[in-house]
Design brief:
Blueprint (H helix, E strand, L loop, with lengths): L3 H16 L20 H15 L21 E2 L2 E2 L1 H10 L6 H5 L12 H11 L3
Helix pairs in contact: 1-2, 1-5
Length: 129
C-alpha cells in the first residue's frame, strides 16, 4: 500500500502531464477547475491516466459523479444542493470533505470539491488504505 505522499506524487505527475501545468501549481488543495483549469474532457483523460498509473479500474462516475451536476431536482433546489443531494454526495463520494461545501451548497460551488486531495483520498480508498 503506497503512502499518501507516494500517491500524491504520482497524482501530481499525472496532472502535470494531463493539464500541462507546472509541478508547483499542483498542491493537495489545488482545485481541478478553479486552479488547474481542467475542462470536462480533461476529467476523462485524468481518469484514464490514473488507471494506467495505478493499475486499477475506475468505474465511470465513481471519481467524478455527474448526477448532481446535472441539476437533478431530487438533489438540487433553487440552485442549491439540498439535504438529499448532500446524502447522495456522501454516499457516492465518501472520500470527499464536504464540510465547507455544506456551509454554501450552491451548485456552482460543487466544482470546488474536486481537488487534488479528493483524488488522493479516493485512490487511498481504492488501494485499500
Amino acid at each position: 500500500m503506497p503512502t499518501q505522499d507516494e500517491i500524491f506524487e504520482k497524482v501530481r505527475t499525472t496532472l502535470v502531464d494531463a493539464l500541462n501545468v507546472d509541478e508547483d501549481e499542483v498542491t493537495m488543495k489545488s482545485r481541478l477547475r478553479g486552479d488547474l483549469n481542467a475542462e470536462s474532457i480533461d476529467f476523462l483523460d485524468i481518469v484514464f491516466r490514473l488507471e494506467k498509473q495505478f493499475g486499477i479500474k475506475i468505474p465511470r462516475e465513481e471519481l467524478f459523479p455527474e448526477s448532481i451536476f446535472q441539476g437533478d431536482p431530487r438533489f438540487v433546489t433553487d440552485g442549491k444542493v439540498n439535504a438529499e443531494g448532500i446524502r447522495e454526495l456522501r454516499e457516492k463520494m465518501p472520500y470527499a470533505d464536504l464540510s465547507d461545501f455544506q456551509k454554501d451548497p450552491r451548485l456552482e460551488k460543487m466544482e470546488d470539491l474536486f481537488t487534488v486531495e479528493l483524488i488522493v483520498r479516493y485512490l487511498q480508498s481504492k488501494l485499500g488504505g
